[in-house]
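Morning, I've got a small favour to ask if you have a moment. Here's the protein in full, and shout if anything looks odd to you:
***
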Amino acid sequence: MPQDAVVYSLNLIIGAILAGLMSQHWRLSAGGDSLRFWIAAAWTLTLADLLFVLRAGTSSGVMRMLPTLTVTAGHAILLLAAQRTTGRLASVRLAAAIVGVHAALLAAFVAFPAVTSWRTVTNGVVWGSLSLAAAAVLWRDAERARRAMSIPMVVLAAQGAFHVVRTLLATRVVVRADGAGGALVQLLGDLEVSLFMVALFVSVLVAYLRQSTIERAAALDDVRQLSAMLPICAWCNNVRDDDGYWTRIEQYLAAHRVSVTHSICESCAAHHFQVAGTQPSGPAARD
């Protein structure tokens, strides 16, 4: 088996393990929409490694394009995942347009072999731009979410910076026609795949586990507060919060994730509406 096929086979195993772990966590924890995008990106990049393995030893133009294009699709889904994680609307059309443009460029490299040496440069520009864009989306988010996704953000930024350096090296190789330098660029790319997938998707999984732990701790703290003695005013029924402020009991309960609905008891119905034993019609009687 060629050396590059061995590397891609190892990447395939690593990717399948990581994607499987993330899928299992999503299934057991009923994860949300944003985690589903991260999982889709993990499986897409794993599929790319499988296609790279199948491509080894073939000269088919389609098989040379398809694995690279799948990597682009995986990075585009990473950008969508970052947008959904931060509560933004996923730019699906933009992601599809980027994949389409890259597909056109790859087809041009196949059709015109004289310019195929610029293929690595083009790939680096596309992948690096998508990684840096995803990191920027996470950085611009609110402080709470930015803190939870800080490690994935750093990994994406580091990968974007890596692609910038690799693109510069690849450009130098093309300009100087340096065959030895081309082998180094290819080796750096093969190593980056494994390191990037492990660092990114492990950090994403840890971030979601940490977020779940924080949410459970907050919910438990709310239960403890609500089960303890509440200082309620004997005249207006307002509640004194932890900061010493008096608020309406509905606002206090809503702040502690307790839904409040208004109704009316029989005594108040008889007193205010003079209808003994019955509730008035209209909005005041609705639960």
About this structure: Residues 3-221 form a domain with the Rhopdopsin 7-helix transmembrane proteins fold (CATH 1.20.1070). The beta strands are 239-240, 246-247. The mean pLDDT is 80. The chain has two domains: 3-221, 229-287.
